[in-house]
Amino acid sequence: MSVLTIYPEHQPEHGTRYTDSNVIKSHLHSLGVQFEHWNADYELGLDADQNTVLIAYREPINALKQKHYFQSIDVIRVHPEQPEKDIIRKKFLSEHIHDDFEIRFFIEGCGLFYLHVADKIYAVLCERGDLISVPAGTKHWFDMGENPSFTCIRFFTTPYGWVAKFTDNPISDSFPTLDQFVAELS
Fold it and tell me: How many domains are contained in the chain?
């Protein structure tokens, strides 16, 4: 189940949670964020490489490429047994922006996107089948949890792929991690 929690910028203890997909879409659409649920029905083996994933999802990939003229597409796949998982997680946990518009399509597992827009923080729990966009210049961070298990196809409008400009704002330290966020849902 996808979840959106909206927090006042400096009050991570006072969030308002939404689980209705139409309400989530409406809130995110007002920010210029695309949020949709797509089919993610291919079962991938643990040994599936980037090329296997891209072939399996070539139809939705081609549709997005035609619509948004993406120049770079890659796959990020992280599992609990990966030795470098902590390094990968830390890279995404700091607030940053990108010069380009990007999209993430979750085909396995889940992750928690935080969007920092004006004086609010939007926490979006994305799960298998969720597609989320991040407009260029939008401050955000991402948490994959202590024992990550997800696969995303990432789309970028520049040929360089994932290039972040970090804001050096420690705000992400104040908000729930993916593990805390999911525990609060129980």
Answer: 1
The CATH number linked to 61 is 2.60.120.10
**186 pLDDT higher than 90:** no
User: What is the gyration radius of the CA atoms in the chain, in angstroms?
Assistant: 16
Q: Where are the beta strands (DSSP E) in the chain?
A: 3-8, 16-18, 35-37, 72-78, 96-97, 102-117, 120-127, 130-134, 139-143, 150-156, 165-166
Residue for token pair 């139409």: 22
Query: In angstroms, how far is CA 131 from the centroid of its own chain?
Result: 8
* Per-residue model confidence as pLDDT tens digits over 74-96: 999 999 999 999 999 998 999 99
Q: Which domain holds residue 45?
A: 3-185
Higher pLDDT, 163 or 33: 33
